[in-house]
Design a protein that fits this description.
This protein is an alpha+beta fold. The chain has 9 helices and 16 strands. 21% of the residues lie in helices and 33% in strands. The chain is globular, with a radius of gyration of 18 Å.
């Protein structure tokens, strides 16, 4: 980050915390099995009406990981003037860059207000988009869930999808049985984006999260009440966690990691996955490299510790 870079200030109002992260994968069941082997509980598979399908990892702090793949290419609508296509974006991300983090999603209480706020901040906005689907709970009963998505984007980071998500039937979506994990995971503590120029995206993430940028070594962090979005240079990522980003990817911003908070590092039979899978250690965290988690690095940290 340039030393003289001007950092945007937050306007008055609450921050938008992390709702979830979208991770695109080639084989949905295989990716879900990988996460179960890591001690996470997964939901049953579900299908969207626009050509994609998902399996979720829900957390007690009301954040979640969305494993997503294409299940019906013919049902995918292409983007158009003023129209964003969630399915097409993730299809293209998987085809162009392979498995890994594709979209950062912040929590919304009012989709219309978010759209107006994004437009006022000079961010791109698109036609309102909403959908319904059924979700099968731990009891095997299918219930309706519905969402309003407010898409925006960062011109400096076309490979990073961004939207705000408003859930209309949260009582049908969040289930305690899905939020309990053998490894003790509590929730998403943050998302890390690799970018050669963190300052270039500062205004976008200040507007999206409503947070004041906090300088960190090698980048910026946007701290909300519900998780952080951190922009780091590839060099800083290598120095912190020993992960080298390929040259062709280091020049384009992309989602590199998900930080997961746990009360403590587990070493029970259910949590011994730290030893089962090759990992690095970086101070108070444990690392599962991208190659071991379908393209997304997992940074496991204890709750209450600040690692960034």
């Amino acid at each position: 980050m340039a030393a003289d870079a001007a950092l945007p200030a937050r306007t008055d109002g609450p921050t938008r915390g992390i709702d979830h992260i979208v991770q695109v994968v080639t084989d949905l069941e295989e990716a879900a099995a990988c996460y179960r082997a890591l001690g996470f509980t997964t939901t049953p598979p579900a299908r969207h009406p626009f050509g994609t399908g998902n399996i979720l990892v829900q957390f007690a702090n009301r954040s979640f990981l969305e494993l997503l793949t294409v299940v019906d290419p013919a049902a995918i609508e292409e983007p158009g003037p003023g129209r964003f296509s969630f399915a097409a974006f993730n299809r293209d991300a998987l085809a162009s860059h392979g498995e890994g983090g594709a979209m950062v999603v912040v929590r919304s209480n009012d989709a219309a207000a978010d759209r107006a706020a994004f437009a006022a901040a000079g961010l791109p906005v698109f036609e309102p988009f909403g959908f319904e689907r059924t979700a099968t709970g731990p009891d095997g009963v299918a219930r309706k869930v519905a969402f309003s998505l407010t898409f925006t984007g960062d011109p400096e980071a076309p490979d990073v999808g961004i939207f705000a998500c408003q859930s209309h039937y949260p009582e049908n979506f969040w289930k305690p049985d899905f939020q309990r994990h053998d490894n003790g995971a509590h929730g998403i503590a943050g998302i890390v984006i690799s970018t050669p120029r963190p300052d270039a995206s500062a205004a976008v993430w200040a507007a999206v999260t409503g947070a004041i940028p906090r300088p960190v070594a090698g980048g910026l962090s946007f701290d909300t009440a519900d998780g952080d979005v951190t922009l780091l240079t590839p060099e800083s990522i290598r120095e912190r966690w020993g992960i080298s980003i390929p040259a062709d990817r280091s020049i384009r911003p992309h989602i590199i990691a998900m930080r997961i908070a746990m009360p403590e590092f587990h070493h029970t039979s259910a949590g011994i996955w730290f030893e089962k899978i090759e990992h690095g250690n970086a101070g108070a965290v444990r690392i599962v490299p991208p190659g071991r988690a379908h393209g997304l690095m997992l940074i496991i940290e204890t709750m209450g510790s600040r690692v960034l």
